[in-house]
Amino acid sequence: MPKPDIYLSVIVPAYNEAGRIEKTLRRFNEYFAKQTYTYEILVVNDGSKDGTSEIVDKMIGEIRNMRMIDRKQNKGKGYTVREGMLASYGRIRLFTDADNATDISHFEKMRPYFDKNFEVVICSRDERDAPGARQAVKQPFWKRLFGNMGNLYIQWMAVKGIWDTQCGFKAFRDFAAEKIFLLARIDRWAFDVEALAIARKMDYRIAIVPAYWENDPKTHVNIRSYFKTLWEVFKISRLMRRLAWRLYQNDELA
């Protein structure tokens, strides 16, 4: 069966998002109604317990070009994004959070870079990455403190030169998405770091655009999540050393 010809796939990982996902999907529908390109919306339910899948299922007939992967077991955001990236059809594949904290319209800033043949384009909330990046309401002090400290560690261990690796709005060309996420192993919070580190290993060009980010106080991220992320980053640094050797061997065999 031939693959559908779709320009953009939007992957939405969803875990216990019953209170937010309907508003987000309606915003997507409003935005895409004004676009001329082909698209799909793929919601990947990560074993939600709060009725998320039921809400999305009811909306499939109302929201155009939307489908769902309804997994009953919780496996983590990284696993869920990876599943969506590999199951989608778009020539460009974007993942974004279910709260729409980085509005879907940010994709307009990304398109010029894909037109220039960049393989990866990400949003950043940090002006050191992209002038003009800002937050509508700043995060609590403890989150900013842990975020800044954690980023220095991330740069040291895995992805040098990117100040915001965790903004949940990243897009990939189809071939890059497939290569990156077939290699990816991190199932939970630090999957963004791993994806960027693999992209660097493959010499993919990464562009960064500024985000206008609206912090949602109902976020699932807590202090424990930060420490789990740091542990995962340590594992990523080890995986990258192994990946470098695997890529070298593949080049030698080509």
Automatic annotation (TrEMBL):
Keywords linked to the UniProt accession: Endoplasmic reticulum, Glycosyltransferase, Membrane, Signal-anchor, Transferase, Transmembrane, Transmembrane helix
EC code(s) of this entry: 2.4.1.117
PANTHER family membership: DOLICHYL-PHOSPHATE BETA-GLUCOSYLTRANSFERASE, GLYCOSYL TRANSFERASE
Presence of the UniProt keyword Transferase in the record: yes
Pathway info: Protein modification; protein glycosylation
GO molecular function, one term: dolichyl-phosphate beta-glucosyltransferase activity
Origin species: Candidatus Giovannonibacteria bacterium RIFCSPHIGHO2_02_43_13
InterPro entries reported for this sequence: DPG_synthase, Glyco_trans_2-like, Nucleotide-diphossugar_trans
GO BP terms: protein N-linked glycosylation
Top-level division of the source organism's lineage: Bacteria
Protein name: dolichyl-phosphate beta-glucosyltransferase
Pfam families, alphabetized: Glycos_transf_2
Catalytic activity: a di-trans,poly-cis-dolichyl phosphate + UDP-alpha-D-glucose = a di-trans,poly-cis-dolichyl beta-D-glucosyl phosphate + UDP
